[in-house]
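Hi L.,

You mentioned the student needs an example of a multi-chain input paired with its predicted structure. This one should do, with 308 residues in total across all chains.
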Amino acid sequence: METRFAERVTPLAAAATALAVFACCVPLGLAGALGVLALGSLFDTLQPWFLGVATLLLALSAFQCYRGRRTCQLRRSRFSLAVLGLSATIVLLVLLFPQSVAGWIADYIL
Amino acid sequence: MDRGLHPVRTRYLAPAGIVVLLFVARAWLSTAGATPEGQPALAYVNNLEALKAEFNRDVAKTRVIISLSPSCPYCLKGATAIARILAKHRERPLVVLTVWQPILPTDWGKPGTGALHRLSDARVRQFWDAEHIVARALEQSSQGRELQPSCCFQNGIWWDLIAVYPPGATWDATLPEPVLLEGTVEDAAPAFESLLGR
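Structure written out for the whole complex:
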């Protein structure tokens, strides 16, 4: 059960971390509004690591999926695979086509 | 022998493919996009002279400098907001110098066609400033002046800002005093529009 939970949370964390790269002025403004500018500067400092962390989390989730199949003889859940696939797509899109993803976020989310 | 090697080859095929894809994408991203019709091609800022000449050429017009990052969604939204304002004020004599610079970790390439086409007005000139030369000039020129932006500094670099200069102002040793200097571009867009409405 825990393995399956980790299998689903890790890729989602990878996708969220990759997308956090785009959180440029918005959280800074929000942090300023909340009076916690230190949060904003910490975010600035950590931001260059986000892509690397996202890639590592994605690799970890792929490993978890592979290990679950090999050692525990668990049947891979389709949902877990779908989450992994979707997260991998998001991370790759952010890595390879950041301007297109940013444009899409600007037009449809912000 | 071949049978033993076959699964190994297959196993490495996907990662190798991804690596190749990454290199191709990297090469593709490093090429600049095409500017909209009616605008000159994207110019590279190696020093301030070209930009300064462009700024001083149209001294009788309102000059606007916009600093943006090509993969920042909020910047792109700001660019769209400026484009909308320019479309509303088609007759207004002004020049918009849009300076794209790498700020976010995903800014590993020059602005692509999609980003450049957000500002499609013929009065816009677009630049790529990899060394943040314009951001430094903006920062230096504002030292000791009353007008200061309330936001938008990343690792000491000014970005996602709009600076508006009135007709008659010239860029000599430093940039002249702006009538508007604020970020983000999206948030400052209404102030820019009200300036144009005067």
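You could point out the following to them. The mean pLDDT of chain A is 75. Chain A touches chain B through 28 residues (CB under 8 Å).

Best wishes,
N.
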